[in-house]
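Supplementary Text 2. Reproducibility record for the structural model of the 173-residue chain.

All settings were left at their defaults, and a single model was retained for analysis rather than an ensemble. We include the record here because the model underlies the residue-level annotations in Supplementary Table 4.
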Amino acid sequence: MSETRQTIRELDETDLSILERVEDDFDVSLETLAEELDLSKSAVHYRLSNLKESGVIQGITADVDPLAFGLELVAITDVSVTHEAGYSEELGTELMSLRGVEQVYYTMGDVDFVVISRIQTRDQLNDLINRIVAVEGVNETSSKFVMEEFDNERKVIDNLTEQARETVLEPSG
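Retained model, structure tokens:
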């Protein structure tokens, strides 16, 4: 069993409630959480600390609006590569290091990687595609352009099915 799986099994309903609330608003105060969950501030702080230390909470960040900086163009680029031993991690890391790239996914199917990028101009996008193609091992790219974005907040806890929630909450051992 993986270490992450063992960590997740140590959660309880209160931990999930804290995670749901923090995931919804990372800036929520300890006082508010304590009041909403009928816990002391120290109990909430202790639980949050444990969730951070165990890696369940990976970090606390601010959501910066990319549109406020003129980063209005989003491209989804399919990348096909030459298959060699260890290529996925090496190429994925190199693709992720390119300026303008927000996310990289190693996929199975017709393409090897999906690269999500956000840039300001078509010239910047052209430059980025040239840099992707210049990565050793990249054979071909095909890009799609996003016309409209919808709310894309990731809600991990909200996406748990009842069965997944029960699995997370079942006692380890």
